[in-house]
């Protein structure tokens, strides 16, 4: 099976260079090319490529926003940034993309990285949940199964609590069915819960007497970051857990 690639760059010569290198290496299919961010997001949704090769310096939309929109429209696609921008937040990229290559590097290095990324096992999963009190339990079962498959049981307890809290909020407070999505990045596990209900989650002041309102304080304590985004379906509450660091060889 060929690795399906979407090329995103506003410079036609760069797209031609990468396309030629992929054809010479073999095992790739360039399914589409985009010259700006809006086109990239549209093509990502249409083609659902295995890998997106993304330039951050596009003329119409900021690179971080393009990346976020592509992730939303095609969550199973891997993203490798191929950019000439000098001022890049490498720490942010490390958590949100599968690879980063500067344009000064040899194109063969980019191709080798695409081979590695394209052949990696599935690193995202999605499940629709009904508007039911049982959805929090189903969300926990889903998370437990996927973390077992991905070999990330070190995160199990924290991930179960976060997923359960976000799913319960969607059903109980937003009064909505919801969708839970798990996505692995090199250094994080991201948990998204998308619902169509009204209202936004807000941590309540700590109280010993109230039975509700403490869950988001736990989410905040357990995660490296969490937040809310408006999406086409409604709203998405997301949270990220830090993945365990792999010891360096010989240590």
Care to describe what's here?
With 251 residues, the protein is of the alpha/beta class. The chain folds into two domains: 3-118, Rossmann fold (3-Layer(aba) Sandwich), CATH 3.40.50.2300; 124-242, 2-Layer Sandwich (Heat Shock Protein 90), CATH 3.30.565.10. It is 38% helix and 25% strand. The strands form two sheets. It has a five-stranded parallel β-sheet, with helices on both faces. Helix 7 (156-172) packs antiparallel against helix 8 (215-222). Residues 247-251 have low confidence and may be disordered.
Features:
251 residues; alpha/beta; Rossmann fold; Heat Shock Protein 90; 2 domains; 5-stranded parallel beta sheet; 5-stranded antiparallel beta sheet; disordered C terminus
């Amino acid at each position: 099976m060929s690795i399906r690639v979407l090329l995103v760059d506003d410079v036609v010569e760069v797209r031609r260079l990468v396309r030629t290198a992929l054809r010479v290496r073999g095992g790739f299919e360039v399914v589409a090319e985009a010259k700006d961010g809006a086109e990239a997001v549209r093509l990502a949704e249409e083609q659902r490529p295995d890998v997106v090769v993304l330039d951050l310096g596009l003329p119409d939309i900021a690179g971080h926003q393009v990346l976020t929109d592509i992730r939303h429209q095609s969550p199973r696609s891997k993203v490798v940034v191929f950019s000439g921008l000098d001022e890049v937040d490498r720490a942010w990229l490390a958590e949100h993309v599968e690879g980063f290559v500067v344009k000064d590097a040899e194109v063969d290095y980019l191709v080798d990285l695409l081979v590695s990324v394209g052949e990696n096992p599935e690193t995202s999963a999605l499940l629709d949940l009904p508007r039911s009190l049982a959805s929090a339990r189903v969300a926990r079962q889903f998370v437990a199964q996927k973390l077992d498959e991905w070999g990330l049981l070190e995160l199990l307890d924290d991930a179960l609590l976060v997923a359960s809290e976000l799913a319960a909020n969607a059903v109980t407070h937003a009064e909505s069915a919801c969708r839970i999505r798990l996505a692995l990045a090199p250094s994080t596990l991201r948990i998204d819960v998308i619902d169509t209900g009204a209202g936004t989650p807000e941590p309540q002041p700590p109280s010993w007497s109230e039975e509700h309102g403490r869950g988001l304080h736990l989410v905040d304590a357990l995660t490296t970051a969490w937040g809310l985004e408006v999406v086409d379906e409604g709203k998405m509450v997301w949270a990220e857990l830090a993945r365990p660091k792999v010891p360096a060889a010989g240590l």
